[in-house]
Protein: Phenylalanine--tRNA ligase alpha subunit
Organism: Deinococcus ruber
Amino acid sequence: MQQEALQEIHSATTLDALQTVKTKYVGKSGLITKELGSLGKLPPEERRARGAEINAVRSALDAALKEREDTLKRAALDARLASEAIDVTLPGLQLPSGGLHLISRILNDLEGIYERMGYTVIEGQEVEDDAYNFDALNIPWYHPARDLWDTFWLEDGRLLRTHTSPMQVRYMLEHSAPLKIVVPGKVYRYEATDATHESMFHQLEGLVVGDNISMADLKGTIAEMARGLFGASAKVRFQPSYYPFTEPGADFSVWWENPRGESKWLELGGCGMVHQNVFKAVDDLREAAGKERIYEGKTGFAFGLGPERIAMLKYGIPDIRYFYANDLRVLEQFRGELG
Ligand code: DAH
């Protein structure tokens, strides 16, 4: 039986199989255990020798079981380590990287176009004071044009800027003419959302102030921007319009044949010559801050446009709400390189 048991122990190739052999021989009702149990039936003179013999077998099996168990455990560990080993020649994991949002890229493009024309890019604050968002822009509290900008008011009397135009005033308070700036940023409108209205969107504001600045300079600038955005064949058109902070005021449209072969006049933004009341309001604020009055009598033009609208025209995006719904099926189509 010892020979057989040792044979079985050595042929067990798994810990489970070894456990079966162990139970078979030295378990509670194993063969060796039974032999020990039957010692009592032997005559006393045989019992001692027989007992010693069985115990010797049992020790031999215990030792063999222990050794085999150690061997199998070590083999299992070796196999696990081998499977965990790092193959340094494997190609690395391809981690998906993010990209710039379409609107960020359009703003970057616009900034590039204006920087090449010598403009400085500045940013402003999204929480504004009534004084800058409206009053200094020739929109006093009783002016009906305030209704053009549905406003999110804050509890402390301030507001979320409804356009980037207040930065015209803030910039002129701190800087003297001549100046050329563009201001990209978020603006907010308290209104029902639909395919062409969102409560948050972006604008790019432009302001040029100096001596003898004319409407011709404004037109040339907008035309240059349109060619930068849509290619050399893009044309621009101006139609009279009204903004309290411009005189005269205009809306401008671009004509551009898109890749789908369509072309029509598409309105992109508002513009005009800076109203003298804006220069006067700036000088009043400067004077109150102990600074020189330097703007009355100057000339300048300003414009404001929406990058969402440019993106919708350029790529045929039918609904402004797609930009901020975080639907990757939309965003990934327009994912630009980082940086
Ligand atoms: N601030 C205007 C708006 O949000 C856009 C605009 C129109 C800006 C004419 C200008 C301008 O600077 O001259 O509707």
User: Anything to note?
Assistant: The pocket of 3,4-dihydroxyphenylalanine is lined by residues 163, 165, 205, 243, 246, 270-272, 302-304 (CB under 6 Å). The mean pLDDT is 93. Residues 102-338 form a domain with the BirA Bifunctional Protein; domain 2 fold (CATH 3.30.930.10).
